[in-house]
Amino acid sequence: MLSASAMARRLWLTLPAIVLSIPPAHAQSAANALPPVVVETAGQRPKPVAKPRIRWSATGRPSARPAARVAAAARSQAVPVPATTVRANLNQAPAGQTQTTVDRSQFENRPSFSVGDALRDSPGISVKQGNGPRDIGISIRGSNARNGFGIRNLVIFEDGFPVTQPDGLSRSDLIDPHAYAGIDVIRGPSSALYGNYATGGALNFRTRPGGTINGFEYGIDGGSFGYLNNYLAAGTKVGNFEASLFASDARGDGFIGNSWFNTQTVNFLATLQATPDDRFTVKIINNDLYTRLPIRSTLDQFNQNPYQQGCATFAGAAPGCATVSLFRNGASGIKDTLTAEQAGLGRNDRRTIAGGRWEHDFDNQTTWRNQFVFDDRNISQPTGTTSAIGDYPSYNYMSDVTRRGEIFGMDSTTYFGGFYNTLNWSGDTRNVMPGGNATLGSLVSNVQGEHTNYGLRAREELKLNPALTAIAGIGWENTHLKGTNNVYGSNPSLTTADRQFQNTAPELALLYKVNSDWLLRARVASGYGTPQVGNMFILADGKFGNNTQLNPQRNVGYDLGVDWTPNTAIKVSLTGFYEFFRDELVSQATPANALNSSYMFNAPRSEHRGVELLADWRIYAGWRATVAYTYLDQVYTEYTEDLTGGGNTFSFNRAGNKIPGISPNELTARLSYDELSGSLRGLGAFVEVQWKDSFYMDNANLLKAPGYELVNLNVHYSTDLLSDYFKAVNVYVEVRNLFDKTYIASANNLGNSVTGAGVQGLLSSVTIYAGSPRAFIAGMKVAFK
């Protein structure tokens, strides 16, 4: 009897032979990007038929001529079908999913500095400031709210290419919202299609197709705290070739002490329709980041000095300055206390992603897709007492077949695919020592790791009748974690980890279209996420040690939703969800000046439940109101935490406690007006309110981070130009945090302490970044022919 892994390898090797056995016939178009979808489509995609095929244009709308005639004409003239002809890709726009599309029109007329400025328009989304200007923590249904940096527990794509590395880490440093046509937000456990780490869902960023740019555009944003962003977009479509290029240079002084930054991004997408049956797509992203980094504050320090002003040096520093203690000789012994500015803390990182995709149509109904991505993350991060230094190259390959046709007279979409991805690296941790400019001291540890995933996915979407669609899918995956942690210094040690995990994720969904106004959705799906190699070598006190007992987290979620679209002026979507977690991976901050900033543990059982509401109402000509609201209630249902104090160990039952880091209520509401005619056509304005409720910061639920309400005000103007050289101009001015509220933009989870008498407290730990005070930003964009 073959083992599961041996069977997977055999299926993987025979997949090309299976595909090649399918007889060729007419051409079939395939996607190089996800077409725009209306809000909360829940998988309402064009009907896939073997009759005259509907081809999807780059704007996501069906072409006027039947695709069969287009393909036939192309063959008769020996001219390939234009490269912009694409169709919705099952792997990126799955039916039955709870999903929202944030369209470019929702963030085009504002100075969108980071991904958070765009994603707040989707329910289920929460964002928080990470370690850097654009390092934004993105959370879907609370999935990433507990992590100290980067993005975990969701999978991210750009134009269908993965930008999440095999160990589940994504970072948003490379995201400049000016580059995108839209963002698709898929909410809820989604490992059946997206595999490891899709416990919260997935995001797909879609860059602007070259044909829609058709020339080039230059833009500039600038404003408070020395912020300046120069960016360029260029695009073209010539015959069967289409390409777009985006580049930006953003820099600023920052509003917190020691937070100046300088970051450059290049984003390129090109597609060639080589034959009527073959399409080739190339994707390249590169981001260079240079930034200084403040130290996170305690709540008391935040209340005293939220923006860390007057903290140039420890001697004579203002009250509330956060500090770090560094070994004077870079290794051991006497320590000096320095501020972030004095030590020169920061990040110097590069991220390079290069991907290629080949799609081949075997017939009018069957498409084979092969995709390869190289993703290299190179880091130098002196962010506290230590600096992380390393190169993290990864490789991601996938191959799948999609067939659209009929089964027993019912419209059917069948999908089967396999994948393999791996990350192999060596990373050092070195002490930071006094001397300024992040002077490095001795080598503390070296981690060598390998993280490999491979597996299979299958899916069937069946339209049982004109009103009812059923979806069933399953994914199987093997994950192998292997690593060693060498600790140097006066107490050297060696810790090894070698773990393999097999996970299976089924999914079922039903869509029932009551009539043209109402769509009902029901879904049950599962997700899983394994630990990372680095998690297995860090203890609760921030020291290196053996934490190799960590298990994968698994969740099963139930969604019930309804979409109401009575006319083109009103769209309302309401979704309730209930998710059950086992071995949930929860991170918390370690004590101040610890070697490592975060510690990971398994909570045996927990429950996540909530409600997501999206409303879009075009009230009257030019007037529009939008609301995105999320309610989250997340609790431990089985978890006993052991704490040691005064030589005694105490056990505390956390069942019923709120999981820290989760804000129970979040809302973004906007009221806008745009002049649609007359001499003032193109002039508009909006007022926006953001509300984030207070939330607990520790497992014992002793301390809450205060909530906040912010008001933003925007005025914009856009117009077409009658010129031989200029096409359009767009200008805008925005005041953010209009009433100058002091608020917390990020608060990592705190660990609890206990006295010898069993009284619980909080570990003294730095955890908070303040949000921006009132800021004025203006921007202009000019489109050239």
Report the β-strand fraction as a percent range: over 45%
Largest sheet report: 22 strands, antiparallel, barrel
CATH architecture classification: Beta Barrel
Cα Rg: 26 Å
Helicity, in percent?
under 10%
Span between N and C termini? Answer: 65 Å
CATH topology: Maltoporin, Chain A
Number of helices: 7
Q: What's the structural domain tally?
A: 1
CATH level 1 class label: Mainly Beta
By secondary-structure content and strand pairing, the structural class works out as mainly beta
As residue ranges, the low-confidence spans are 1-88
- What do the pLDDT scores average to? 88
CATH superfamily, by name, is TonB-dependent receptor, beta-barrel domain
Shape: globular
How many strand units? 39
Describe the structure.
It contains seven helices and 39 strands. It has a single domain (98-784), classed as Maltoporin, Chain A. By secondary structure, the protein is mainly beta. 6% of the residues lie in helices and 54% in strands.
